[in-house]
Amino acid sequence: MSKNLLHTLASPELDLLGPMLDQHDYGWSASFQGLTLRTALQPIFSISHKRVVGYEALIRAFDTDNASVLPLHLFQLPTTEPENVLLDRLCRYLHIQNYSSLSDQVNWLFLNVSPKVVARGHQSDSFFGQLLERTGLPPHRVVIEIVEQPTDDSEQLRETVAYYQNLGCLTAIDDFGAGHSNFERIWNLSPDIVKLDRTLLTRAIADKKARQILNGIASLLHQSGCLVLLEGVETHDQAMIAIDAGVDFVQGFYFSRPSLDLTRLGQNCPDLEGLLTDYKSRNRVQLDPTQQITDFFSGYFQGAVNKLRSGQKLDTACSDLLNHHAVSRCYLINTLGVQIDHTLISQAIARNLDPRFIPLENTSSADWYRQHYLKQALAQPEHIQVTRPYLSITGAYMCVTLSLAYSHQGEMKVLCCDILAQ
User: Fold this and answer.
1) Is the pLDDT of residue 59 over 90?
2) What is the pTM of this model?
């Protein structure tokens, strides 16, 4: 590559890249260092809409014998920064040229931006706005993917992302959950979409705790104002986990592989209706465990409340409850959330107390005002409430809490019972 060409790339010109593209019956291709580059598109589906909402553009390279060249090897070819910029721009030019030729006038095009180009700042990428103008692709149909990685200049990264956002494009953080992922970057960059790395999914298959973490991450990202995409879904079971996690979009071989045949996009859509039907069926068979707990313990619990109303002490009133092997603790709270007297601990729990958490055992006068089980009980007196499984601060184990607000001698109290969540 000549020095004059490299110098010109410092101030990018579309006219320089145009001659590197060729049109064929199957679409557009590009030439780079003796290789032929083509666009492959992989569909991205919305679970709720049950249809395609976008495509990720992926580069495919072929040598002179039409043998496939791994993308990793392609992106190792540039030896200088200007060459890296050239290849990045050429790929995006090719993808947008191909996508603009499709009949689809609604869905998003997801484009990866080279981390090295991002690090240079938006000044070196000002050609992108010109590219959109020339091809006629509306910026609101483009999602710019930023790969998660460490950066020495977070301010420059923020300015670069703002450049795309100001153009009217959406932005996405890619591979969140792997490598250098952190929520600070989410807060700083305010992306529209966060793509969860498939390692979160593979861990969730084998580990129940990892599945809970996946669900929690999706929830936190939603609260941060981001839509969530789970990539790398390859099996039916993984699709079930994705649905249960509450993610908005899915991508992966289970739904559709990347395709070079851009004329047949959307012709082999997966049966998302059937997938959701299967999910609903599984959830009907596997009843909500919290409801099962309520049904099973309601007699014991209501009996304890009746005994408290009759004037019996807490330990006597709750004796039947505490004799059940799944019950760990019983305690009373006033309307301000302050615990009345000490906590009753079942014999099974007492025998297996973890000495590492002894500092958390004494809960006399503890304030539980922030807990949902108190708020729920006070909002609906005389009705048993049950929480979802959560980590108990008194012993660092998973439990659910039954609670019921009742009136005794003109004073409202709340009886609580912690039950081990297996």
Assistant:
1) yes
2) 0.80
